[in-house]
Amino acid sequence: MNEYGCNVCEEEYSANDETKCPRVLTGCGHTICQGCATSIAQTGRPSSIFCPFDRISTVLPGGDIRNLKKNFALLELLERISDGSIIDRSQNEPFQIDKYAKERQLNIECDEDQCHVAVIYCTVCDSNLCESCAEITHSTNVLSKHKRVPLTDKPTPLVYCKLHASYCVEFVCKEEYCDSENRMMCLMCRDYGRHKGHRHIMIENELEELKEKLREFLNVLGKQTRIVDTSVRSLEIAIQDLSPGQEEGQLVETRQEVRAHFRQLRANLDRDESAAIDKLETYARERVESLTTNRDRLMAVSTKIGSTCIELQKALILEKGKLLEQKDDLIALAESTNAEPASIPDDSQLCTRIAFSISNDRRLHIGDFIDSRVVFLGLDGSGKTSIVRRLKKIPMESVLAPHPTIGFNVELIHYKNYRLSLWDVGGLPKLRHLWKHYYSNAQCILYIIDGDSYERYSESLRELTKTVGDPLVGTCPVFVGINRKDGTPLNGHLDALLSQISALPFQLQIFQCDAASGSGIDQLIDQITVSISRLNGEIPV
Ligand SMILES: Nc1nc2c(ncn2[C@@H]2O[C@H](COP(=O)(O)OP(=O)(O)OP(=O)(O)O)[C@@H](O)[C@H]2O)c(=O)[nH]1
Ligand SMILES: [Mg+2]
């Protein structure tokens, strides 16, 4: 690569050759030669040019490459180098541009020293030489007169005819039907030999045509190389930008942005959590203050009642005369103590469970419980009672013996700001005609299917369709729970059941749980309250 050349085509810049003039891409500050800029601009938008090194766009004033600023500093430097006015400090002599850069690329050995690369051709000695060997071998008066040219200008040697060795090849046969393998011919071949009477052209013309073609190819391939090299460079930049372990680049920047985003989210969450906890604690403090005031008031009443009782007890053992004397005082004392206001707290004041909900913007709301009715349906033995026991947090150390529910059971549980009454309805066939009395005014229906009993899937689906298809269900959210999921491993039957449920023309929310292990139960209660809050048009918790 030439140090003072264009980094795209790697050819030297020049003030004299317009196509080699260094032009500045003002968008980014890189410099490339006018020729490369022209071919790059043709592949992009004509009004602008993308830098081949960093893909930054530069507007082309007037849509013409020639309007891009010349890199005068570089031109001046080149001029000073060619003047010899710049000293190469490492060599302590004027800085030189390698004028044989092209010849060196041919990498032909020097005839004098195989370790040297030839750059010069002596037309008299017919030898390829490096600069120093050319200097040494041609230092005498006579030899110094030999004509030496750059290796790339070496004249091509004469070629002699293979059949008539003393004749030079001068023509090339152009006869379409010529069957000779050797198309080059000398005068003898043409006039008397196997090419006699054949159409032909001068070898120089043929060579010129061929060279012209090769030059065209070189031109096309050169452009292609530039495009490919530019793309390789762009790809390298992109690879570097996205490779992990780099200190800078797009990946690093984006990673920082993502981290900042999550840092902000965490900070917001922490702030909202603190605000919610503060609010909860303030609420608890106010409740404690009010309960303490109530308690102190009742203690004062209790003390007064105690002392009055003692006074009355003492009066009971007084002499008749004295007792009668104190009659009015004692009655007044008893009446005033009896009239002392003693506000006895009711259950709601004593209830310490705190109803709360959290809005979408993560604010805590403390308020009354919302009462909702959740009805459990499903075939007998599907696990309804077991799931309700799990929701009630009743310890279940082992699987209980089947104990069919006759009629129904109601259990109350609290979750956030919901007070849910869980209606566990028996699933025996004789009880199923009663189900409608339970689901007709439910806020949520849970239909449980025993995942293990695939022989009962169709019966279960039939009852489900009948239930959900009943207009009494209306907009009530329906959950279909596959119980015993931790039992038999998932099998094809279960997959088929899930797709059959999904294909039903109702809006059903499917979940899987296991009453024996308790898995999936905690998520269930959360989903139920979210569905109920949506149904009520409240802010989902
Ligand atoms: N291994 C296992 N057994 C379960 C599971 N759920 C329920 N069972 C057992 O299955 C049997 C029936 O469960 P129940 O909860 O009584 O069924 P049910 O749906 O209430 O039945 P009915 O009241 O007749 O409608 C009991 O012996 C439970 O212990 C489970 O997830 N895994
Ligand atoms: Mg039951």
UniProtKB/TrEMBL annotation:
B box-type domain segment(s): 105-151
Residues of the RING-type domain: 6-55
Class in the EC hierarchy, top level: transferase
InterPro entries cross-referenced by the UniProt entry: Bbox_C, E3_ubiquitin-ligase_RING, P-loop_NTPase, Small_GTP-bd, Small_GTPase_ARF/SAR, Znf-RING_euk, Znf_B-box, Znf_RING
Catalysed reactions, as listed in the record: S-ubiquitinyl-[E2 ubiquitin-conjugating enzyme]-L-cysteine + [acceptor protein]-L-lysine = [E2 ubiquitin-conjugating enzyme]-L-cysteine + N(6)-ubiquitinyl-[acceptor protein]-L-lysine
GO molecular function, one term: ubiquitin protein ligase activity
SMART domains linked to this entry: ARF (SM00177), BBC (SM00502), RING (SM00184), SAR (SM00178)
Keyword terms: GTP-binding, Magnesium, Metal-binding, Nucleotide-binding, Transferase, Ubl conjugation pathway, Zinc, Zinc-finger
Residues where Mg(2+) binds: 385, 405
Pathway: Protein modification; protein ubiquitination
The EC number(s) this enzyme carries: 2.3.2.27
Binding site for GTP: 378-385, 427, 483-486
Superkingdom in the source lineage: Eukaryota
Any single Pfam family the record assigns to this protein: Arf
Similarity comment text for this entry: In the C-terminal section; belongs to the small GTPase superfamily. Arf family.
Identification of the protein by name: RING-type E3 ubiquitin transferase
Species for this entry: Caenorhabditis angaria
